[in-house]
Amino acid sequence: MTTDTATDAEQVVSRLRATFNSGRTKPISWRRGQLQALRAMLVEQDEVFLKALHTDLNKNATEAERTEVAFITNEIDDTLENLEAWLAPEEKSLPASMLPATGKVVREPLGVSLVVGPWNYPLHLAIAPLVGTIAAGNCAVVKPSELAPSVSTAIAELLPQYLDTDAYAVVEGAIPETTALLEQKFDHIFYTGNGVVGRIVMTAAAKHLTPVALELGGKSPVVVEPGVDLAATAQRIVWGKFMNAGQTCVAPDYILAIGDTAKEIEPYLAATVRALYGDDPAQSPNYGRIIATRHFDRLAGLLDNGRTVVGGETDRDARYIAPTVLADVDPESAIMAAEIFGPILPIISVPDVDAAIAFITARDKPLALYAFTESDETKARLLNETSSGALSFGIPVAHLTASELPFGGVGESGLGRYHGKYSIDTFSHLKGVVDKPIS
Fold first, then answer.
1. Which runs of consecutive H residues, i.e. helices, occur in 163-311?
2. Spatial distance between the Cα atoms of 110 and 232, rounded to a whole number of angstroms
3. Which of 68, 249, 266, 412 is catalytic?
4. Which residues pair with 256 in a beta bridge?
């Protein structure tokens, strides 16, 4: 389904709202059925999605399966296993002045949600929020990214074959279609992308007092302290940074190397890049491509912002930028001005933990903060003296896969959180209920 005008968008939302108002989406059994159908789509159409992901981003099948398809099926499985428990009313104690009375918190669905997905994980980040909105009992419009056209087409063609089309719709398109959707009154908007568009979404939502979740990004630092195993540290950083050609919202954006580790880690990073992608990553089946030429041009313009440790090669026609590590980077250079969102990893040298914390806190709050350290004191200081969407020691990115943990940003890196039970809370109204006898 494609909408071209505000009238079309209004008709889509009106149809879904009529379904929601009918009460069809509220029974837990119905929600289970839709989640099971969504899972069946992912399993039965796996090859279609993997092919589309390769076409749009050159994602190899193993990476695409793990980070896109399997991620969502795991999220669905976890939700199905815990749905009744997560939705159960929570009994609450009341003040003595109200007794005799009982209190509880119930989760009621909000209504009709809008999920606007990005291009970097175009299946995962369009469908994972949908899991939560279905589980919470809502209807939803899904707007996939037009920059990943093959995945967008696959979602638009396949989702209506599996889900109730009176409750869930897919709207393809670009700025005009998204603008038309944002003019409608939704009960929740879930947007994943950048801060510029996030502000547009929030402004549109304000007209209807619609709650929003904004999953944005930011420059996620990696603090590396002296004394750690640099070989293991480099392996984990390179893995987290260069998957999907660096186009990951929680990818390490830059290294804050304390003391001599800036120089010491360089050969380990270079060796790990070669071990993972070979001497010529352009020939590696495991290395992706930049989503579009304009993104390539932006990234290529950052390559002269330091001394090249490894990489630096480009091919504009193929939208290829080699996995690149830059050393001797000036903190005031262009590459440090905004999230890189590509396969370039700068190393910034700082003298001590105090300087690292000062560097982090002087900038916008990142979506994630990573640290490789053996010091409990350093861990405690980073926990207590910095603010970030998430904090991970010893491994980057992996926290995203744990549905037991909330995922979301803070400040410029976003607002709201999801995964597991947090998704249900995001797409629900938590209503306090009091029952006091009349006599």
1. 175-182, 195-206, 230-242, 261-264, 266-277, 293-300
2. 46
3. 249
4. 223, 348
Is residue 215 flagged as an active site residue?
A: yes
Q: For 78-110, b where at least 16 C-beta lie within 10 A, e where not — what string? A: bbbeebeebbeeeeeeeeeeeeeeebeeebebb
Separation CA 177–CA 200 (nearest Å): 14
Catalytic residue status for 139: no
C-alpha span between 226 and 374 (Å, rounded):
9
Read off the pLDDT of residues 41-76 as tens digits, 9 standing for 90 and up: 999 999 999 999 999 999 999 999 999 999 999 999
Q: Which residues contact 288 (CB under 8 A, 6 or more apart)?
A: 57, 58, 59, 60, 63, 243, 244, 245, 247
The pTM of this model reads 0.95
Q: Which amino acid is at 371?
A: A
- Digit-coded pLDDT (tens) for 353-403: 999 999 999 999 999 999 999 999 999 999 999 999 999 999 999 999 999
Question: Which of these is catalytic: 63, 68, 215, 266?
Answer: 215
Amino acid at 91: E
